[in-house]
Each structure stands twice: as C-alpha cells, then as structure tokens.
Amino acid sequence: MRTVQRLRWHPALVILHWSTALLVVGQYGLSRFMRDESRDLLSRFALYQWHKSIGLTVAGLVLLRLVLRLLLPAPAPMDHAEWQRLAARAVHIGLYGCLIALPVSGLLMAAAAPIQIPTVYFGWFGVPHPIGPDRRVYELMLRLHELVFDLLSLLVLLHLAAIVTHQFVWRDGLLRRMWFARG
C-alpha cells in the first residue's frame, strides 16, 4: 500500500496558527489602549484583565499546537536550500519561545507587582499567582516582557518577509500549506 504525503498542514494546526496570529495582533492593539492614562481606572482595569486573559489563551493555544505538532503528520518537505530550512526552523523556534515567554513573564509580572490585582480569566475564575509581591522580580519581568515582545516583533517581521519572498519572488506555493484553499 502506498503512503500519501500531505501537501498541507493539518487543519487543526492551521486553525491554531491563524487564531494565535490574530490574538497576538489584538494583544498589540490592546496593549496600546492599556497604557492610555487618560482612561478611567475601571476601564484600564478591564483592559488589563482582557490582556492577561488573552495572553493566557495564547499560551494555551501554543502549548496545544506544540502537542498536536508532535502527533499530527507534517506536510512533505519542500525542496529548499539547507540554509532556508535552518533559518525557518530558527525563526519558528524563536516564535514559539516568545509566545510562551510573553504570557509567563506577564503572569509573573502581575504576581510580583507591588499592588496586587487578581488575574481573572475572562471574568470566569481567578488564576493563582505563583509568587508574591517582589519589586525586583516585577521590574525584571516587566523588562523581560518588553524585550520578548520586541524579539517577537522582529521574528514576525522576518516570518512575513519570508512569506512575501516565497509567494511573490520564488512563487513556490509555500503559503498554500498554511491555508485552507485547495490547489
């Protein structure tokens, strides 16, 4: 019996990829609104709760995606140069690392904050803080959160540049592998 090689990523992985991408873009916009000090305190509190809830959701989606990535078959490899495969792998590992480090640093930052504000996941339940208030940890996590976001931004730009290059310069059909369309 002949095995058929997949040409695309499994639909569950595609859904997780695009859901995560949309949530990350939303998080960026939300983070701009959160810092607006002209907003009343109650509005800012709600924005921070949404930001934390979405961040935890991103972490969950990324962990689920990593598990499914191990369980579901990958599409057949494309015929690319070794440096391209290595660069793609490095960027993807970096993206996964950032998408885990951001929610972890954010949760630790909230937990270590001098003024304790509970983390309530979409208003449904409280998320326990793993540590107590600690100004040094808070400041370290704040710097780490910002640094990881900057790194994530750079990696996303590299990822987008690669997509544009594959789609419009090399015209190799790579983008179809992460889309639902046939052909």
Keywords:
183 residues; 4 helices; mainly alpha; single chain
Outline the structure in words:
There is one protein chain. The protein is mainly α and about 180 residues long. The protein has one domain (about 10-175). Helices cover about 65% and strands about 5% of the residues. The chain is built from 4 helices and 2 strands. The chain has helices at about 10-35, 40-70, 80-110, 135-170, and strands at about 120, 125. Strands 1-2 form a two-stranded antiparallel sheet. A hairpin with a 3-residue loop joins strand 1 (about 120) and strand 2 (about 125). Helix 3 packs antiparallel against helix 4. The protein is elongated and about 55 Å long. It starts with 10 loop residues before the first helix and ends in a 13-residue tail after the last helix.
